[in-house]
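Subject: sequence -> structure tokens, single chain

Hey, anyone have a minute? Need the predicted structure for the following. Not urgent.
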Amino acid sequence: MKTEIHPEYATALVKCACGNTFETRSTIAEIHTDVCAECHPFYTGKQRLVDTAGRVERFRQKYLSPDAKATEKAAKAESAES
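Reply:
Had a minute. Here:
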């Protein structure tokens, strides 16, 4: 194995968006994540939507049934009038 070509493998601090922090080993000193084992739906059993720039809303609008679209338009019209 060649010497001095491998990066330094040291302790790294991982910070999640939920506020959880833990230490692991990596070549990067500090790692920022959006989802960790403390807040991931698979591990917690709770549903959490991570909406990045309205993607969930765009998906819902794209695949909304025609009947639901008519109902949604009527609800928006009523709220705009009041």
